[in-house]
Amino acid sequence: MDISKDKSIGSASVRVSRKITRILNVYLKPYNITAEQWGVLRTLNESDKISQKELAERADKDQATLTKILDLLEKNGFAERIPNPTDRRSFLITITEKGTELSQQLIPFIETVFEKFVHQIDEEKLAIYQEVLRSIERNIDALLENPNN
After folding, report:
1. Percent of the chain, pLDDT > 70?
2. Which stretches of 29-122 are DSSP H helices?
3. Are residue 90 and residue 105 in the same domain, yes or no?
4. Does residue 90 sit within a domain?
5. How confident is the model at residue 1 (pLDDT cuts 50, 70, 90)?
6. Which domain holds residue 129?
7. DSSP H or E stretch at residue 83
8. Is 94 domain-assigned?
9. Are 117 and 20 in contact (CB under 8 A)?
10. How far apart are CA 63 and CA 133, in angstroms?
11. Model pLDDT for residues 59-82, shown as the tens digit of each residue
């Protein structure tokens, strides 16, 4: 019996994604940050002083979720909202010195965690996996742009 793509790709992808988030939260707990917050902080570390809309797109978060994450990052002193000099109705999001220090500490740490995830997986297989993920993501992006396709 053939397993549906919904189950073999969809459910498996969701399951692995949840497990990655769960184990990252375990590893990140001592740093007082979650995997969701880390994704946003990492994005800020790469693209400082950007609008919330731009940050939402780059971090792939909806506005409501991003607002909650930013509230927590701000509360913990990792990021802040500053007035946008070109648009008084909006804010720019910036990483603080404390947030930069944490990012610099976590980048190599998270890399070692991911090394554990892929331990004993052949580099060629990992390259194919990454290529397939990019292809699936492009297909999904195209469908999001034109859902009737």
Report:
1. 99
2. 35-46, 52-59, 63-75, 97-117
3. yes
4. yes
5. low
6. 121-149
7. strand 79-84
8. yes
9. yes
10. 25
11. 999 999 999 999 999 999 999 999
